[in-house]
């Protein structure tokens, strides 16, 4: 993904919050109450829309939480057929 500047600088508030510009929210389809994952990479803060992923294969669709483990339908099926 290419990095590009949209020419916006924002201050953090007293709680460390930053408002994401509407253009960015719209382009990434970020809606009210969407969850974002927060990462750091050296001197960068990286945000991305949260999507649960399968603990076994890493896919991020059709994921079911079983206890503290998240598994996709394919991995659940594979486990069922093995045991």
Summary of the model, kept short:
Residues 7-52 form the SpoVT-AbrB domain. The chain has helices at 22-27, 73-82; strands at residues 36-41, 44-49, 63-66, 69-72. The chain is an alpha+beta fold.
Features:
two-stranded antiparallel ribbon, 4 strands, two-stranded antiparallel sheet, 83 residues, alpha+beta, Pemi-like Protein 1, Chain: D, 2 helices, 2 domains
Task: Walk me through what this model shows.
The chain is α+β, with helices and mostly antiparallel strands. The protein has 2 domains: about 10-50, Pemi-like Protein 1, Chain: D, CATH 2.10.260; about 50-83, no CATH class. It has helices at about 20-25, 75-80, and strands at about 35-40, 45-50, 65, 70. Strand 3 (about 65) and strand 4 (about 70) form a beta hairpin. The protein starts with about 20 loop residues before the first helix and ends with a helix. The model has no long low-confidence stretch (mean pLDDT about 90). Keywords: DNA-binding. One of its GO terms (molecular function) is DNA binding. It comes from Solibaculum intestinale.
Query: In percent terms, what proportion of residues is strand?
Result: 15-25%
The biggest beta sheet is recorded as: 2 strands, antiparallel
Structural class assignment = alpha+beta
Remind me, CATH topology of the largest domain? Pemi-like Protein 1, Chain: D
Mean pLDDT: 89
Number of helices: 2
CATH class of the largest domain: Mainly Beta
Shape: elongated
Using only C-alpha atoms, the radius of gyration works out to 18 Å
End-to-end CA span: 41 Å
Protein name: AbrB/MazE/SpoVT family DNA-binding domain-containing protein
Keywords: DNA-binding
Organism: Solibaculum intestinale
GO molecular function: DNA binding
């Amino acid at each position: 993904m290419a990095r590009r500047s949209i020419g916006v600088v924002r201050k953090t508030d007293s709680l460390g919050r930053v408002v994401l510009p509407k253009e960015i929210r719209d382009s990434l389809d970020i809606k009210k109450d969407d969850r974002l994952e927060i990462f750091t990479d050296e001197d960068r803060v990286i945000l991305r829309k949260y999507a649960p992923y399968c603990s076994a294969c890493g896919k991020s669709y059709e994921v079911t939480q079983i206890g503290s483990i998240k598994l996709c339908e394919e991995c659940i099926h594979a486990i069922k057929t093995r045991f």
